[in-house]
């Protein structure tokens, strides 16, 4: 029974990581134009670069698939670990672990030399599974930021910080019950997003970050 529990727990992590590792942007580049998306545009294997290089339809499709890569582990794979009985944790712990495994898989994909995207869409999908109402606020902040500045990177960072702010307000201002695990996760996620966008942050501080061109000529970093 103990071995069975361990196998289920490991299966949860491995399945989540492998799903997150699915290199959707790279696949899209190969299928639609026969290119390596990592050698085009900003060189990042994420939905934003697909949007720039392959157009809005491809970018939105990749983004939605990347979100599913974060959502599915939280909904389907986490119960596998929880039902194993290993560690005796609450469900949210397994959900966070499964979701993070998917996000790590997206950022460091085993299928493409550990060079993946920046984890924003997959992280958003994970958060939808944990707290969908918070995602709506993050989307609004992201949309307003990108519409006003046309900086996708800035919108992504501010959206992740908004998620943290919402959780902190919920617990410490509104006095609502928020699991400590969720509180810690809400702090970890923006730290991870800022880390994966560290090059963008440097360009933003220097005023060198290119803006997203939603119409007409593409080519922003």
Walkthrough of the structure:
- With 221 residues, the chain is an all-alpha fold.
- Helix content is 72%, strand content 0%.
- It has one domain.
- It has helices at residues 2-21, 24-33, 47-54, 56-83, 91-107, 120-130, 132-149, 152-173, 180-196, 198-206.
Helix content: over 70%
Q: Please give the largest β-sheet.
A: none
Question: What is the radius of gyration?
Answer: 18 Å
Number of helices: 10
Q: Structural class of the helix and strand makeup?
A: mainly alpha
Please count the beta strands (DSSP E, at least 2 residues each): 0
Strand content: under 5%
Residue ranges: pLDDT <50 for 5 or more in a row?
216-221
Which outline best applies?
globular
Number of domains: 1
SSE order? HHHHHHHHHH
Give the averaged pLDDT, no decimals: 89
Ends apart, CA distance between termini? 51 Å
Core attributes:
221 residues; mainly alpha; globular; disordered C terminus
Question: How are the elements arranged and paired?
Answer:
Blueprint: H1 2-21, H2 24-33, H3 47-54, H4 56-83, H5 91-107, H6 120-130, H7 132-149, H8 152-173, H9 180-196, H10 198-206
Brief summary:
The protein is an all-alpha fold. Helix content is 72%, strand content 0%.
